[in-house]
Design goal:
heterodimer, A: 116 residues, mainly beta, 7-stranded mixed β-sheet, globular, B: 112 residues, 6-stranded mixed β-sheet, 0% helix
């Protein structure tokens, strides 16, 4: 069965550089979520999109932006990178959009971002 | 603000034991609860999803229960195996949105 695809899998950037992470949801899934997992921490919700519109926003820094495109893939753009941005970034997808209709979220393998 | 707590933080058991992982959440107005497995440095594998109207879900050797009114869920693993060694995360949908709020996980080690 098709899963959530994330690219790249690993990314090394220097401070103050920019990075773009891509997410391709499971076919026919209309909702995409982004999470950040720091070392030894649990995943923290950043932002989500339903039918190409932002549906929920969490603790996403102003330096980050994201969007969902017409083919439902999503990109997370990160600018002015800081050492503290080093983390595993997960994308998840589901069907059904916003609450109260919430369905199972399927996670991608993650992108490991290292900022030096 | 929804908060999720998992107990214990770490657990080490001999192979073959049955074990219970606990998850509690502060706001009972959830839509569903998911249990995940995470191997070191890897992604999240969804194990079980319990809708808010359900009390229990089973998959193979795994059984998850939900008591929404008391804000608790348990994950029961029967006849544990070394391959079950991983971190187990509990996550709930937060009220007003579709985001998942995660607990800090239980790190399970099953010794051969």
């Amino acid at each position: 069965a098709a899963g959530v695809i994330q690219s790249p899998r690993h990314l090394i950037k220097e401070k103050r550089e920019t990075a773009t992470l891509k997410c391709y949801p499971i076919p026919r899934h209309d909702t995409v979520y982004w999470y950040q997992q720091g070392p030894g921490q649990d995943p923290q919700f950043l932002i989500s999109f339903y039918e190409k519109m932002q549906s929920d926003k969490g603790s996403i820094p102003d330096r980050f932006s994201a969007q969902q495109f017409s083919d439902y893939h999503s990109e997370l753009n990160m600018s002015s990178l800081e050492l503290g941005d080093s983390a595993l970034y997960f994308c998840a997808s589901s069907t059904g959009g916003v609450a109260p209709i919430s369905y199972e979220q399927y996670f991608g393998p993650g992108t490991r971002l290292t900022v030096t | 603000k929804q908060e999720v707590t998992q107990i214990p933080a770490a657990l080490s058991v001999p192979e073959g034991e049955n074990l219970v992982l606990n998850c509690s959440f502060t706001d009972s107005a959830i839509y569903n609860l998911q249990w995940f497995r995470q191997d070191p440095g890897k992604g999240l594998t969804s194990l079980l999803l319990i809708q808010s109207s359900q009390r229990e879900q089973t998959s193979g050797r795994l059984n998850a229960s939900l008591d929404k009114s008391s804000g608790r869920s348990t994950l029961y693993i029967a006849a544990s195996q070394p391959g079950d060694s991983a971190t187990y995360l509990c996550a709930v949908n937060s009220p007003g949105g579709s985001r998942l709020t995660f607990g800090e996980g239980t790190q399970l080690t099953v010794n051969p």
